[in-house]
Amino acid sequence: MFRALASVLLCCFFLEASFWVHFSYGDLTTCSGIVPMTERGDNISITDFGGVGDGQTLNTIAFRKAIYRIQHLRRRGGTLLFVPSGVYLTDSFNLTSHMTLYLARGAVIKATQDTPNWPLIAPLPSYGRGRERPGGRYMSFIHGDGLEDVVITGENGTIDGQGDIWWNMWRQRTLQFTRPSLVEFVNSRGIVISNVIFRNSPFWNVHPVYCRYLFLLCSNVVIRYVTILAPPDSPNTDGIDPDSSSNVCIEDSFISTGDDLVAVKSGWDEYGIAYGRPSSYITVRRVTGSTPFAGVAVGSETSGGVENVLAENINLYNSGVGVHIKTNIGRGGVIKNITVSELFMENVRTGIKVAGDTGDHPDNNFNPNALPYVKDLTLKNIWGVNVQRAGWMHGIENATFTGICLSNITLQGTTGPRPPSWNCNAIRGAAIEVNPRPCAEFTSVEQSGSCASHS
């Protein structure tokens, strides 16, 4: 028994330690190989269970019957549930392990707008309450809890949350509970989401949470070749939010939403500190999009800690912030080893933002002495045109953010005589080949410090 347990732990150690050794297919570097695509030996169609794709018939029973069949017959190798072309209106539903949800070209799974009867579930323990309202939260439209070996894919079919009714409730302050995400996996492993369009989520779009260690086995999530769309004024419609999760691969996607395109999180103030599950080994690569907020974000809920995040080959336009590292007093947690490289941005308000005063609190029980620890941020090979402000970097007094490296960065302003400016406080690091010149807090050469490997 001990030998078997040791083998599992050793497997986990080597998988996580080698996560940065990415696979290459031709000239394309990818991390998607951490979860192999499963060939299903058993195929069924939603129409076999009474599914009707006319956009009016309610298909909730059809989806639940089909998934019940997959769960209880347990075909060897799992089962593929095929959704043919058509519009399939349905309430929220749960997935099961060892299944593929396959959307054919022209297939749309559309959420009902029957908000009073939307199922409620318990708040996430690392948040202590719903993110928007006290108490529980509405279940995500497509949900999975404690699952393994699940694939959502197809021929660029659409999952449509019809979120406008939820956005209006948020604007009018009539929400009773926190809005549902479009897709959420909790405590799950071996998840692949690819070749699907997500549209008009009520809240966050794709939310893998606690996909870290399940029964001492390593957990992996791959999100690739997806398109995520929501209007720029849709509130809190984050694209992809890895949350207290490890070994997450996000690649080759287009995201245009009303909030951060990708935001790494790990719990909220005293609840996240107590739950203590960090996010780590997360790769974001070849993502393009626009947003009024940030293209790549860490936070602001980071109380479990965030480390070893790599974001590269990112293209942003018409956006609020290029890179945003955000936390607050009371968060606690450690943010370290964050690298953003090969980032291009156009028409952006602020190129780089690092802030220690961002985000609200779940209640008044947070500890004001729980200061976040932020170090070892590397921002390199970044270009921007029509950038209004180059950088805004403010740490926390008595908790200076350290080890920040700015390397090979050029940010051109809008037309006018003055270049975009930097504004800094409680920050310490180094800068090499940065234009316009950053704040005095960044030394020009620091061979043994922040930018030693880039000198």
From TrEMBL:
One record GO biological process: carbohydrate metabolic process
Signal peptide as annotated in the record: 1-26
Keyword Hydrolase on entry: yes
Keyword Hydrolase: yes
Keywords tagged on the record: Glycosidase, Hydrolase, Signal
Classification via Gene3D superfamilies: Single-stranded right-handed beta-helix, Pectin lyase-like
Molecular function GO terms recorded: polygalacturonase activity
Similarity remark: Belongs to the glycosyl hydrolase 28 family.
Protein name: Putative polygalacturonase
